[in-house]
Amino acid sequence: MTGGAPAPPPAAGQAATSGPVHVVGTGLLGASVGLGLAGHGIVVTLEDPSPAAEAVAVQIGAGRRRAPQDADPELVVVAAPPDVTAAVVAEQLRRFPAATVTDLASVKAIILEELAQGGADLERYVGSHPMAGREKTGPAAGTADLFVGRPWVVAANPASRPQAVLRVRELASDLGAHPAYLTAAAHDRAVALVSHVPQVLSSLTARRLTEAEPGALELAGQGLRDMTRIAGSNAGLWSTILAGNGPAVAAVLRLVRADLDRAIAALEPGGQPANLGRTLVELSHLLSGGNAGAERIPGKHGGAKRQFDKVTVMVPDKPGELGRLFQEMGRIGVNLEDLSLEHGAGQLVGLAEIAVAQGAGAALAADLEEQGWRILR
Amino acid sequence: MTGGAPAPPPAAGQAATSGPVHVVGTGLLGASVGLGLAGHGIVVTLEDPSPAAEAVAVQIGAGRRRAPQDADPELVVVAAPPDVTAAVVAEQLRRFPAATVTDLASVKAIILEELAQGGADLERYVGSHPMAGREKTGPAAGTADLFVGRPWVVAANPASRPQAVLRVRELASDLGAHPAYLTAAAHDRAVALVSHVPQVLSSLTARRLTEAEPGALELAGQGLRDMTRIAGSNAGLWSTILAGNGPAVAAVLRLVRADLDRAIAALEPGGQPANLGRTLVELSHLLSGGNAGAERIPGKHGGAKRQFDKVTVMVPDKPGELGRLFQEMGRIGVNLEDLSLEHGAGQLVGLAEIAVAQGAGAALAADLEEQGWRILR
Q1: Is the ipTM beyond the 0.85 threshold?
Q2: Is A289 left (phi over 0), alpha (psi -120 to 50) or beta?
Q3: Distance from chain centroid for Cα B89
């Protein structure tokens, strides 16, 4: 790893947060915050409107219930559904007049607006949003590692005190996340673009498959699978997330709609010779824009995309073959950078695409070939 | 492997095709057909308007140039760009009055229509479309294995002779592909749905990223990466594919546009309490449709989705760690069904999601944990 690699998460006991920290809402995120802080020896107290969720969180070691004689917390973390977050934040600001209060909701501007309208003490409020999650939900799925290596947006408002911002930044760092500083509005525009709009378009692509004719879906390849993976997400939860960021999501979707109109207009005359030139120029323009946008997504270390050698190996789809390939690669000791597996519908074999450092691909391919593996060149 | 598994591809010399086969167009697909047939000992002759492409195909063993004294082929395979395919097919039907002629273009109805209008002998024409491809193009990327395990659409027309259909079916089977029988129109609707529309929507999603504000793309996660992977595809080639299937693609895109209008209308009032209920119901309806569509995509063996146990392992992002995990799994001898790696932007660690047979997950997790790996539960 080069010198540009991020620092490792703080070891147990090396946290900047002193606590106590009070966590309101003990679902996946709240329980994970509690577990991570408790691992540093910080005092964590918990509450949840569901006694069952609270009991599970206590049981797994995410913290303990608040007792009447407990000192006021230094920091309150509100990990509630987005539609109740503002009310809970306002209540906690009133309840603990010296505490910094943050929330973890996936939308930020609407919550800030509601707090401002309600006259909340915005000096002690700093919104935040850890970009982490799992397919599972609930406290039992909580883990101290949930935030490690993930971006954590710290969205201060103009009234936020520097000390309050620092506390939230330290919370993110103590849990191993990478703080990113954005205003509430910039956060909402950013997540609309990189998360909410992709969710809508994945769902709308998948929705069309409900009308597929017999035999059609047997032609599906890896492209469709990738495009529709997030279409499997929880519809209820995502409706709330999207509704909370309505204006920002709608703004991007209107631009997508304008592009879609252009694509439909270009496609409708089809491949008729008279229109073919115009059709091709228009489609190529739209698709090239997609090339340029995809190129901007940072690589796995948040920097520019790194260039790798790629070696594609055919893996017979029978028990143990993939394990045998892994064993082989372990033996060769190749420094694997990435790996993806592709299985088409009805496929007898899979393709494993192995990414290694530039210059190392040829030797790996030769070595695997010598051991009897078939390499796609 | 259960009894439902597809048969292995025919061993060398066990092909049903007798040949000779003439391949017109020696890019990736044509060269791969030649290599696959030559591997069965079938006589393959080649031609390409580019002398360089033809020379490379001959050099890699995909066949030899046609000589004037050669017998007429039994089967002609036209592997040309979609916009010239009909003309080349018509020419080959005239040139070899007893041969069956097929093509490999990714659109079928427009070619059939053009052939019918030109008065071609449709009795000997059977269109086809192997659902295979690679990121690389050109004859040097050709491989005898390209079609193994892939669907290969055989699109007979009403005039096609049974003997001609049989020859194309045998071609697909001899190359290890799975023949699928669809009319030209049904084929075009199916690929619009599972391939062409997803390409357009991936590109339009990615195109919006060109306008991202500073800091926004650092929040990108695996969902955006999956959604925009195919947005990196060749814009020129895809413009031709989409234009050739214009009416079918436009028909699906118009339905997507109607859904998009519903989403925008639902989102615009945003999370305002007065409209919230209607917004949530409408969004939830659209997203649930996406759930249902995604659920219909067949699993990797073309049947119903199989249920696996999934074990998620945290892999420290330093040299050799992934290799060490593979070595470990090889040692354990677990029968791996699938594997996906996730790296967020700026991430210090990666998550490896390992799919194994139902019931085998707990033991694997315990075994890995014992060896010091961290398991996300």
Answers
A1: no
A2: alpha
A3: 24
- B291 and B339, same domain (yes or no): no
pLDDT in tens, chain B (377 residues): 333 334 456 777 688 999 899 999 999 999 999 999 999 999 999 999 999 999 999 999 999 999 999 999 999 999 998 889 999 999 999 999 999 999 999 999 999 999 999 999 999 999 999 998 766 678 888 889 899 888 999 999 999 999 999 999 999 999 999 999 999 999 999 999 999 999 999 999 999 999 999 889 999 988 899 999 999 988 988 998 899 899 999 999 999 999 999 999 999 875 566 778 888 999 999 999 999 999 998 864 344 455 678 888 887 766 667 767 777 776 776 766 677 766 544 444 567 778 777 788 888 888 888 888 888 76
Are A300 and B338 inside 8 Å of each other by CB?
no
Residues of chain A contacting B151 with CB distance shorter than 8 Å: 218-219, 344-346
Residue B175 lies inside a defined structural domain of this protein: yes
CATH number at residue B290: 1.10.3660.10
Is some CB atom of chain B closer than 8 A to the CB atom of A371? no
Q: Which domain holds residue A262?
A: 189-211+222-296
Q: Which tokens go with A120?
A: 């909340």
Contact B348 A149 (CB under 8 A): yes
B258 and B286 within one domain: yes
Contact flag A221-B194 (C-beta cutoff 8 Å) = yes
Closest approach of B149 to chain A, Cα-based (Å): 4
B5 lies in some domain: no
Please check whether residue B78 lies inside any domain of the structure.
yes
Please check whether residue B150 touches A, CB under 8 A.
yes
Mind giving me the DSSP string for B25-61?
A: --SHHHHHHHHHHHTTT--EEEE-SSHHHHHHHHHTT
**B52–A contact, CB cutoff 8 A:** no
Q: Which residues of A touch B254 (CB under 8 A)?
A: 264
Same domain, B278 and B350: no
Claim to verify: residue B276 and residue B365 sit in the same structural domain: no
- b/e per residue, A260-282, with b = 16+ CB within 10 A? beebbebbbbbbeeebbeebbeb
